[in-house]
């Protein structure tokens, strides 16, 4: 049971003076699948870095299971909330893929046997099972990103936060990440993902939070957020609804954020 | 749950734009904010190098201390970068200074005067003095280089060297070497943050902090080299190796008196060498 709560969260970066978060109120319950979207620079990554205590609020509160995140070290929060950062080149450091994934579980103090299983399972989930001994630098950008996802999956945390997991992935990579989100949800774990891929968002998430200039401007189901009435708001933060939503609106089917929803609506109409 | 319905917060028509831009460092608009910043890059480089050499050549404690005071502390404070210079140069100098101090304090050979004893180890007055000499030198060198670094834009240095006829290939090497340092620091701290996010406990004891640093060395250097390689390829693709001189749209000014200052500084080196060889020197 891990509930996340942000209350009046403001973050000003001291060195640039940028007010990256400007009053965020957000509650995420255990087992939710939440997508965080918004134009570049809207504060999504900054928000993610507050969830594991890496950034401290300038104002406001971050509560993990009702407890103020400031009272805990980043290392101890890591057992509850695992955040996979945006840029793989700024987190991967080990000489082999297996060692990289093993780093988190080792810090959590797991036994060698348990760790071996965790590493193998996580690498299998991202399709890197055969690359245990590969040097991460030889993987290529998109597979290195998958490696960072495996590294946080292996930690078995109740909350998993993925910062732009789909960026740079081909269709197979996106499908893999979709499967991971489904699997995490099936295990009752909370997933928060930042993405610019609206099709992926509509397909795999029950709740979509839209950010602009450090604030939350929309918060609802994909059907709500991608409904035609909300398009002007999406456009104000340089987002476009997924194609299925546009098709549904043109055909007067109502809000149909996914292809399945289009088909269902068409069937319902012809029935 | 409260979020099943669509909630709209704020005014959607409000423009989101310029306030997101990260402001540039205050002095990045040329020219520099202080007369020190505005010195020709080569002059500042000469000051840094001559200061470093003199800190070693002068010997003793008084000479290097004066160099440290006059050529590093004074300009740094007057330029308003005093705190930054002190912090960075201490950080750079500390590991070497501490190890050199300990070794000399306890193990300097032929040191008869005992200061105090620590178990089997004997700290000597001669050792303490020698350790102090080393610390001052190391701090002076670190400070001189830091001051140069903080008050000089890499692009200015590169452009100035190119104006003086240095080949673009060489200036690229210089520029890359100089820009690599902040990039490496940046990357190292990012990786350190990611390690904490995966449960590495670095809060608390210095030993715990140190443990996190070692694994950063490899990827930091690898990453920096990778970046330079990519930049090289990108330059290649844009005709970098084309023969002939480039036209510079702007270059830092270099008044005659600065040339004089540089030559005078360089001349102090043989002077001090001769004086020292003659057996003179400050305590
Ligand atoms: N380390 C930092 N230092 C200073 N400003 C930053 C830093 N990281 C991000 N910012 C600024 O904060 C704002 C939000 O950035 P970020 O959270 O990365 O946005 P997003 O992930 O939505 O693209 C941007 O204006 C960005 O320039
Ligand atoms: Mg981001």
In a few lines, what is going on in this structure?
Chain A has a domain at 241-271. Helices cover 38% and strands 21% of the residues of chain A.
- Order of secondary-structure elements of chain A: EEEHEEHEHHHEHEHEEHHHH
- Assembly type of the chains comes to heterodimer
Overall pLDDT confidence of chain B: 82
Proportion of helical residues of chain B: 55-70%
Radius of gyration of chain B (CA) equals: 25 Å
Sheet with most strands of chain A: 6 strands, mixed
Tell me the strand order in the biggest sheet of chain A.
Answer: 6-7-8-3-9-10
* Global mean pLDDT of chain A: 93
Task: Note down, in words, how this protein is organized.
- The complex is a heterodimer of chains A (271) and B (283).
- Chain A has helices spanning 44-51, 74-77, 97-107, 112-125, 141-153, 171-186, 198-204, 222-225, 231-236, 243-250, 259-270; strands spanning 4-12, 19-28, 33-37, 59-64, 67-68, 81-84, 159-163, 190-194, 207-212, 215-220.
- Chain A has 271 residues and is of the alpha/beta class.
- Chain A has a domain at 241-271.
- In chain A, the strands form two sheets. In chain A, strands 6-7-8-3-9-10 form a six-stranded mixed β-sheet, sandwiched between helices. A four-stranded antiparallel β-sheet of chain A has the order 2-1-4-5, with helices on one face.
- In chain A, strand 7, helix 6 and strand 8 (190-194) form a beta-alpha-beta unit.
- Chain A is globular.
- The termini of chain A are far apart.
- The mean pLDDT of chain A is 93.
- Chain B is mainly alpha-helical and 283 residues long.
- Chain B folds into two domains: 35-153 and 256-277, no CATH class; 166-237, no CATH class.
- Chain B has nine helices and three strands.
- Chain B is flat.
- The interface between A and B is large, with 54 and 39 residues.
- Strand 10 of chain A pairs antiparallel with strand 1 (7-8) of chain B.
- The structure holds adenosine-5'-diphosphate and magnesium ion.
- The site of magnesium ion has 4 residues of chain A, from helix 1.
